Amino acid sequence: MSTFSPSLLLSLILLNLLLVSSTTEMIKEGEIRLPSEKINGQFCNATAKPVSCPVKCFRADPVCGEDSVTYWCGCADALCHGVRVSKPGACDVGNGVGLSVPGQALLLIHIVWLVALAFSILLGLF
């Protein structure tokens, strides 16, 4: 039966501690993480507004800003507007910002009326 030497056992323990401590580091900018993970209480890892904001996105990554506006290009888009992100995903409709619910209903009826009018003109009914 073989026995472990104390130096081998100590080196295995140190290696284990090194691996565990390296995996618990703070997430750095640019690394992939879950949308629900927060860094320092924020969803986006950014501190100051950049000088120029050439935000280009090819895939929608909506985030909801603290001003209840949906920024479709993600954290970079919200940061360029000087807004902190309150939650990942699009903002809720009818959250009290902008038009009230009756105002939104009237706007929807107006849009439907304009679409119906456009189709009737294209089909030659008017």
From TrEMBL:
<feature type="signal peptide">
    <location>
        <begin position="1"/>
        <end position="23"/>
    </location>
</feature>
<protein>
    <recommendedName>
        <fullName>Kazal-like domain-containing protein</fullName>
    </recommendedName>
</protein>
<keyword id="KW-0472">Membrane</keyword>
<keyword id="KW-0732">Signal</keyword>
<feature type="transmembrane region" description="Helical">
    <location>
        <begin position="105"/>
        <end position="125"/>
    </location>
</feature>
<keyword id="KW-0812">Transmembrane</keyword>
<keyword id="KW-1133">Transmembrane helix</keyword>
